Amino acid sequence: MGSRILVSPVQTVIYIFLVVVGILGNATVVGIIGTVLFREQGRGRSSDMILVNMAFSNLMVSITRNTLLVISDLGVELYSSKEWCMFLMGLWVWLRSVNVWSTLFLSAFHFRTLRRVSPISVKRETSKHLFIAFGLIWSVNLLYSTPAFMFSTKGDKNSTESLMLVSSTTRPLLGCVWNFPSPYSGLAYATTSMVIHESLPIILMSITNLGSLLTLYTHRRSFLHTQNSNGSIMKRMPAERRAAKVILALIMLFIFSWGTSVISVNYFNYNRGPSAEFLLVIARFANTTFVALSPVVLIIGHRRLRAVIKSFISR
């Protein structure tokens, strides 16, 4: 058996604030950038399309899971049927998985863009390839979440969670708990998830982030030492640096929040020491940090998004 997390009033207030910021912020990003992309009808920037996909996954995580956690923290006892538990656990795993790999896709796309010498041009083929990538991210992660649809069940108010996954839950919610055939199969799924789904994206993001930094450094040296550079490349440098700062800040924020959650949850899974409950509290807030703060980073660093918000406020 696991341990139920005790939530203090201060923790509840902070968590509610993070959830509200996450919902409003990601809805703003999806609404504004999505509207711009719709108006441009295929001529929008590829990076903006990826940002909308990431923000949409953040928004869905906040609405379908984090809001339920807030309601539970406010003292409302919510319970669900076995069928709804199977559906919701699968949905939570699916959305969190999509969120992870959408963020990795943003990091990888930015690295690939910086490696290109010619100016960025968004064509229909590029948009088509992006939609194929989005389809793969959502469909493959749906397959990954299949065990959550199968091995979940309804508990009761005294149920505690004996197995945690970063992508689903750090506490029983709506009475829904994992129900693997045996403890070994549960740990096997948790271990596979930790290696392939939780640790691998962080490693790949770290590699692409480092590659982006090195590429920017190389571009800058070439820009400073080559007076007769191509004009289009010279114009690209300031834009590259601005985009790099925003995307690198997003990826660093994700690595910090996701990495903290992975370490905390897997400590609970494999080493039930005296710090287990405290680490699950840390994991809970770490899971929400990126969802809440990523739109803030975008609003600060995304020039077009910031301009629309300033125009709306000044009215």
Automatic annotation (TrEMBL):
It is a multi-pass membrane protein. GO terms for molecular function: G protein-coupled receptor activity. Residues 25-298 form the G-protein coupled receptors family 1 profile domain. The keyword Transmembrane applies. CDD domains: 7tm_classA_rhodopsin-like. Pfam families: 7tm_1. SUPFAM superfamilies: Family A G protein-coupled receptor-like (SSF81321). It is found in: Membrane. InterPro entries: GPCR_Rhodpsn, GPCR_Rhodpsn_7TM. It comes from Clupea harengus (Atlantic herring). Keywords: G-protein coupled receptor, Membrane, Receptor, Sensory transduction, Transducer, Transmembrane, Transmembrane helix. PANTHER family: C-X-C CHEMOKINE RECEPTOR TYPE 3 ISOFORM X1-RELATED, TASTE RECEPTOR TYPE 2. This is Olfactory receptor class A-like protein 4. Its main location: membrane. GO terms for cellular component: membrane. The chain crosses the membrane at residues 12-38, 50-71, 91-109, 130-151, 199-217, 243-266, 278-300. The keyword Membrane applies.
